[in-house]
Amino acid sequence: MTHYKAKIIITVISAISVLICGMILTWYQVISLEQRRSMQTAYKTLNSVETLLDEAKNTADQASVLLSEPCSMQVRTKLERIVISARHIRLIAFYKGRKIYCSSFSDMDAINKSYAGFINSSLAIVKNNTVSPGIDAIVLQTQYPQGIIVTSLSTAWISEIMHFFNAQHHMDLLIDNDIKSSGASLLETGYVIIKSKKYPIAVSFYSAFNIFSYKFITDGWVSLLLSAILSIIVGVLLWRYILHSPSLYENLSKAIDRGEIIPWYQPIVHSNSYGTYGVEVLARWISPSGEVISPENFIPLAEQSGLIIPLTKKLMAQVGKELPEKLEGQLQPFHVGFNFITAHLQEPEFLDECRAFIKKFPPGTIRLTAEILEREPFERVSQLKETLRQLQENHIDIALDDFGTGHSNLNYLSALPIDIIKIDKLFINGLSPDSGSQKIIDYVIEMAKTLNIKVVVEGVETQFQVEYLKKKRVDYFQGYYFSKPVPINKLTLR
Ligand SMILES: Nc1nc2c(ncn2[C@@H]2O[C@@H]3COP(=O)(O)O[C@H]4[C@@H](O)[C@H](n5cnc6c(=O)[nH]c(N)nc65)O[C@@H]4COP(=O)(O)O[C@H]3[C@H]2O)c(=O)[nH]1
């Protein structure tokens, strides 16, 4: 995965994580708000029903003074008055020994028929009763030392209360046995049950998550919107300021465009006269602060990313501008070597680029050398061979760079048309009066001679190395002993 792709993934994941966290928080907020509201509605519903039952209880209390009296006309009239003066009460009845014996309603048989089945319940709903046909009654029993009083209310009042509060949140009223029979299973299925402390009633409501899903949008849209905005901000900030700090690739690409990569030159000299045979062009990155950045710090990336091709083209253009006037009076043709990757050589327009470069110099004054830099084993050698042949036909020399360090340099020597080999400085480093590395160098030089290939030895630093290599009839030297790579204004040609 590229660095760029990784940045995109990190940015997107971070932004989505912020959004998901925001959604979870909103969800939690909406649910807790909704549960609080449902709880409040449940308590209000319960209080309202309790107030009704309080009225029934108060009515019974008022009537309780009559319990010790026989059920005379007077007592009945008093009971009727009590009922009439109460707002929601429909009936008061006294009973003893499982039978109603006195009531505000004159038809005792009808009352006994309707209420007989509910004698054991302290609170019950009496449906289809004959006392008030078509209207269900809620019946409260209150025990006194002298007997039991039954007060009845129309369920219409309770329905009204439930209807009013259900408009806010759906509530169910559980009465006496309902609580015992269905309470546990309700709780298991996500219901909340609020029980009254005064009466055997309870209010239940559903609190499972799915009931709140539409509320997630209606109540939570502000925080959802804020989360979305925050996730975008996090994404943008991450991208622009934290992750998107320019990479070496971007910096290098800009540096090439701005012309910060410039050619430096290292002379290559004839081994016999020390006169300049030519130069190798080596890239240097001059940062805006003037710091000289070594190619080791950017060439590997440039080669890997393909930026090396535009970089090399820029160097060629610059060399074409500044080198010609330096060459007056030089031995001709003057060798100008560039490091090319093989992919560049094989571009269809490469030959035209070389021709355009050569044209910047007076005819016949330079000899362009393509130094092949192939760090990987060559693939498609036959295709490369063809390309190199074509270059040679166009008077471009082919030099095999860093000879001795690659994977299969010897294979290339036999497979490719090579004019020059450049023995790597690694071998020369070991060349001192007391070293044993001469044998390898001797062998390489001999082999090159046999194959009629010219030899440039790189990294020549000492007098000993010069004298030794001269004796071995090396063709050219390149190294600090003669000159380090320098910018054009410091280039001195012998
Ligand atoms: N210690 C020591 N070093 C010596 C001596 N003589 C020459 N050198 C160094 O050896 C390197 C020779 O270039 P190279 O083998 O092509 O090795 C080059 C080449 O592979 C690559 N490079 C530089 N410029 C370019 C370019 O424009 N294109 C490409 N593709 N590669 C480049 O970067 C490598 C390093 O370049 P430089 O740092 O300029 O290092 C240069 C040069 O400064 C010496 O006597 N002693």
Automatic annotation (TrEMBL):
Keyword Phosphoprotein: no
InterPro entries assigned: CSS-motif_dom, Cyclic-di-GMP_PDE-like, EAL_dom, EAL_sf
Catalytic function, reaction form: 3',3'-c-di-GMP + H2O = 5'-phosphoguanylyl(3'->5')guanosine + H(+)
Keyword annotations of the record: c-di-GMP, Cell membrane, Hydrolase, Membrane, Transmembrane, Transmembrane helix
Compartments, as annotated in UniProt: Cell membrane
An example Gene Ontology molecular-function term: cyclic-guanylate-specific phosphodiesterase activity
Highest taxon of source: Bacteria
Pfam families reported in the protein's UniProt record: CSS-motif, EAL
Enzyme class, first EC level, given as a word: hydrolase
Chain segments annotated as transmembrane: 6-28, 223-243
EC number: 3.1.4.52
Any one annotated GO CC term: plasma membrane
Residue ranges annotated for the EAL domain, each copy included: 245-494
Main location: membrane
PROSITE patterns on file: EAL (PS50883)
Membrane topology: Multi-pass membrane protein
Protein name: cyclic-guanylate-specific phosphodiesterase
Organism this protein belongs to: Enterobacillus tribolii
